[in-house]
Design goal:
Elements (H helix, E strand, L loop, with lengths): L1 H20 L5 E5 L8 H10 L3 E4 L7 E6 L1 H6 L8 E3 L2 H10 L6 E4 L6 H9 L5 E6 L2 H14 L5 E5 L2 H18 L7 E3 L6 E3 L19 E3 L8
Parallel strand pairs: 5-6, 5-10, 6-7
Antiparallel strand pairs: 1-3, 1-4, 2-3, 8-9
Helix pairs in contact: 4-5
Length: 230
């Protein structure tokens, strides 16, 4: 590995990578801002009162907290189990920040489980809108659903155990079916201002994934594979 780095980045670049990899990792948690009155500053005070050394993230100070010491105590005190905090890496949070989800939008998360970025997006959307979460692992999607319930956004997150390629094929088949079965249906309603955004298709049909597809277009699509932060 070092030989490859020397060849690719030169001596100085390789040494910087080696020094960085030898540093202890920084653990971060995300504040569940969907809770009334929840804030990073407020949770930071609670952590300090519990004897946990922490600081606001310099990258995402409104939502993320860096834990300097006391991560196990944080878990034991119930900050995570009660839904106040979520253990999540800042790098995963930055991906969602770049996506910039807004309230009322329709999102497609193509590699969603176990759901960290999905739920952060839901928080950025203030619980308003919808997120379709796809993943090939049904058990990992189960963890996502449980986390969504704990965060209070289970009504806006739908999960589907499937490959993205199968999902798009099913969506295309359903679009053809709707065109054949509903020739007199009113025009699809555009969601969002200025005539852009997602297109809501009337009607529903079993997709073979346990839930009907009701959206063929999305405001934003997240495909982070392999997952940042894992």
């Amino acid at each position: 590995m070092v030989s490859r780095w020397l060849e690719r980045f030169g001596r100085e670049g390789a040494e910087q990578l080696l020094r960085r990899n030898n540093q202890p990792p920084v653990y971060t948690v995300r504040v569940n801002t969907l809770r009334p009155g929840a804030s990073a500053a407020g949770l930071l005070e609670q952590l300090a009162a519990a004897g946990i050394q922490a600081e606001l993230s310099p990258l995402l100070p409104e939502e993320f907290i860096r834990i300097r010491s006391g991560l196990q105590k944080l878990l034991a005190e119930g900050f995570v189990s009660n839904g106040s905090l979520v253990v999540q890496d800042e790098s995963a949070g930055l991906v969602v920040s770049l996506l910039d989800p807004q309230p009322g939008e329709k999102l497609l998360d193509c590699c969603a489980a176990p759901g960290g970025k999905t739920l952060f997006a839901a928080a950025r959307m203030q619980g308003k809108g919808s997120i379709t979460a796809l993943d090939i692992s049904a058990p990992r999607l189960g963890a996502l659903r449980r986390a969504a319930e704990l965060a209070g956004v289970s009504d806006m997150v739908s999960t589907h155990a499937c490959d993205l390629r199968d999902w798009t094929r099913k969506a295309a088949e359903r679009a053809v079916w709707l065109a054949e079965m509903r020739p007199a249906a009113p025009p699809a309603a555009a969601v969002g201002g200025g005539g852009g955004g997602a297109v809501e298709v009337p009607g529903s049909r079993d997709t073979g994934f346990g839930q009907p597809i009701t959206t063929l277009w999305y405001d934003k699509v997240l495909l982070d594979a392999p997952c940042t932060g894992e």
